[in-house]
Amino acid sequence: MKGKYLCRELEEKDVEAVRNLLESTFSGFLKGRYWDWKYKQNPHFDPSLAIVAEENGEMIGCNHWLLRDFKISGSLKDKAVLAADIVVKPEYRGRGVGKDLMRFLRSSKVVKDKGAAIIYMFADPDSARHFHTPTGGYIPAPDKTVQYLKILNWKKVKQTADYLNDAIKSGEFNRKFSDVDLKVLFKISSAPPLYVNIDGSGIKVDEKETCGSTRADIVISGDLAIFEKIKMGKNRRRNLLKALVIRKLRIGGRLMRFMDFYRNLWIFEELFSRKMT
Amino acid sequence: MRLEKYEVRNFMKGDEEEIVKFSNATYERFGGYVPRTTEYWRWCCLKRPDVKEDGIFLIFSKETGNLTGYIVVGSSGNIWEFCSKSGTENVAKILLESAVKYLEEIGASSVNVNVPYDDEALNGACKQLGFAKANAHKMFVGVLSFKKLISMLVAVGSMESIRKISEEIIIKVKDAPFWIENAVSFEVHNGEVRVHDGLSFSPTILVQTDLATLTSVLFGTTSPHRAILTRKVKVKPFWKITTMIKLLLSMRVTYSWFWPLGDFG
Which of A133, A210, B171, B233 is the most exposed place for a label (fewest CB within 10 A)? Predict the structure, then answer.
């Protein structure tokens, strides 16, 4: 299978397919106007720095670079390449397409002719460690940017709860809520309270501290950053326990109810697995 | 109370040039971002699909009439640019409050913002309004041409410390991938540095290292001392180590980098 695809420069006829590929990956982002704005309308867009991978006439991946003015330090400004969106169709991943897309541009004469000395990109540290650093020789930049986040509402978690209720009713999960009766209150800094009530009828999510006069069985409180770390980590159960042991996350309630919570952690994993914000 | 001194209004056509000038002056002390031009700013902020003119807030001093800060808010919840005159925590707070109010009104579910680590006004405003630190994305950097990068760095670097050095140096990069030079050579005489690619002469100092180490030393994230002590940079002959440290110190990025969220894409 490997090696059947071909990497080449983007042509006008590819634009529609590339736009669809990118927007299916970043679904919902900017409601389908992403590619046009980022590339077509971009004063720095150069189509020779966009490439595609094609197999039997099907577009299976693309990679975009943008040549920008860049301030390196003090008075030093130069052209630099932003390694922007690189996408491979999910069914073609794991075959080295992304690696080839990255290397194709690196070795291209077009890139050499542009005369840029540096290349930069933005990625989550995990994907950078596993893909970008070994493939592209990237290192963490001397970056002193502080990123802040505040959650205004749990609208997206509520949407996930609705989706989960439907999926469980239709038997998609092969698991049931019939033996669960649990009320959990999340008091996370920089976010409104989140009250999750799970019983035989499904999951109910509310932005309150109590549901009527009913109080929560378990109260979990902590910092949003810790919460995000647990969510993003590979082993969420281990990370949760670790956060509890080192008191980064506090849990209130009876031990038996905590055992119930731990036993049903899969529900919360599903609930927070999708976009929360 | 706080608004007695300031006036806040939304973006109006013609504000671009003042904003660009203000932004470049505010972030002058950093590297790592795209210096703003009116053309870039229009594309990056004004034309961005999730930004409307009523999501861009400007704040002016009533006393002087000068722009003292601005914020560009997207309906996705991202604050693409957030800039305020240094030392004006009130200004930063007013702007951030306007942004949060705007996002609440349009039903966004979260707010994301990037600020420089040393800007107390912006950091203070974020903390006061209940923001938490997040680690969503990090910036990574790589080299496409060592020859060009070193040439640029020596052109702007402080050459005072190497004025008495006269050496011919070759740096070999043992794991250089095919798209980059596996050796860079340079001559240093009387504080002047001439860089060549490849092995152009018989060196007086031979340095062996790897791609990640050389890149980290040049971008200032690893000190040359540490790289040499950990044997990630090997210098031959060894008695030229101090000379090599002086040289590496004079040609590396010393600025901290900051990227407004708008540069992300």
Answer: A210
